Amino acid sequence: MQVGAVQKPRxxxxxxxxxxxxxxxxxxxxxxxxxxxxxxxxxxILTSDGIIYLEGxxxxxxxxxxxxxxxxxxxxxxxxxxxxxxPATAISQMSCGRNHILGFxxxxxIWSWHAESAPCCQMRFSNVDISLGSQxxxxxxxxxxxxxxxxxxxxxxxGTGILYWKARExxxxxxxxxxxxxxxxxxxxxxxxxxxxxxxxxxxxxxxEVRNYVVLDKYIVFIxxxxxxxxxxxxxxxxxxxPKFSAPGRIFVDIQGTYQNFAIFTAGGEVxxxxxxxxxxISPTSxxxxxxxxxxxxxxxxxxxxxxxxxxxxxxxHFHALHANGKISAHGIELQPYGSLGLGSSPYGVxxxxxxxxxxxPSGDLVKYPFAENSRSPQFVWFEPEKKLWLSYLKQECQGNxxxxxxxxxALTLNRRGxxxxxxxxxxxxxxxxxxxxxxxxxxxxxxxxAYFAVSIAAGGRQSAALVLVNDDLAKKIKDKHVxxxxxxxxxxxxxxxxRLPDDKQPIKYRFELxxxxxxxxxxxxxxxxxxxxxxxxxxxxxxxxxxxxxLGLIYKEPDIFCTCANTIPYEAARECSYPFIRLELKACQxxxxxxxxxxxxxxDIERQREAVG
Length: 614
Known about the structure:
single chain, RCC1/BLIP-II
């Protein structure tokens, strides 16, 4: 995947899905290959040059970086750079905990940062030797992985297994030496050192070889090549199997997680979710759990199954999944709506993207309607700014003064007769087909990455972010497909943050502004009759032609006399008119209707008026 002048990697916060807050600048290229959010206070990125940059602050430090700054090392170590490679400080792995960051260097050192304004510490262990220098995973003492958790840190060392230690207490109680070294005694999870060098009977090593693990709040959860999952309580050191995650023929390939949640990925495309609240609910010290494991049922959200999920990032109550097609699906709850889901939050996503307030407070948490949460189709984050304006326009239409607007708004909000479920499918379908034009597909044929292609996701607390390749030229061409004119002369009133041309002068009028909700057909109970509408034909959330039939004028039987009313007449009202006339039916949106003047007009004049309204 090449990053050139057109496709620039940007760090995009998934807040209202369109605010480009952070940009990975040229000095962070070729591109940051990972991004992590630490709680809600900072964001860290690791570049391909092995440099960690931080924006924000760690552990309530009064010094806060407003821009991305490289993290510091002890004075005796020279930081690596694009022009001078230093294996001791070139970071190949980064992991973020609650208020700390772990880094693993190319020569095998473990670095631990606890304040962005202070140098890091170099972690050593009094009970385990670490092998420095060129890294050989088969050599005893070689560090192969570092993981930062909520309050604990961890490392996997060949010949030893999984080590863990308290993150902050280990460095706050000891002063580092001149090389920044802090020596501590780490705990070891028994039997995790096993490596399957050759075929051995499973009975001799029933646990199997550790494939990967995550450090959560007071627990480590790991998977093995025996396709088993285990949880270790860090305070007691007890390790217990999670047998219900296993199944005949199910092959574990990865585990990811943070804080209280984890996800196990299988070779068959399954994504199985678990959390430590369920683990705590069943005591691992009970005789039943020791003999039979923790009987915890994994969750399997339908939209995550067999949808090519390659990574998951968990926040406090929400999470995002990165799919192989470069799209990001959003799940969970949005607290006090901060926009962490990236589905538009209150001003835009409620209710059109299947969101509702959990309580009656408009500033309260946002949750998905059950039909959206249980859907088999992933609900993706959108990065196009004009989509925010589109949803805002839908919101405005629902809040209009006309009776039909209030009827549609009430029906959608209450999901009467399942109308919101069908309408949301219409919205999601339009949003995902935003760039589906033959000439656009031809322009995108070289790499087929689209205008926005996510390569990394991150979440923490109530925030989310993504590292996204942005093709500015393609994004502009797609946007133009939805623009009606760039000089309408009147700024759209629905647009709280108007999108403008590069000269920042001319307003934009979009094609979705031609649409409005139709006159509702009601049942005997006063609900909208959903059987009267085929939402699959609607465009931008409105009837497919973006209009309703209106009579712009009444042509009397005399061919040269044309009479109009002061206002546009709805077709159904005109049809009931008792005057003899030849009906002139023009399909045009009420907002763009042309009121023809009264008087004598020739047929040619009428035809010109017909052409004027399209």
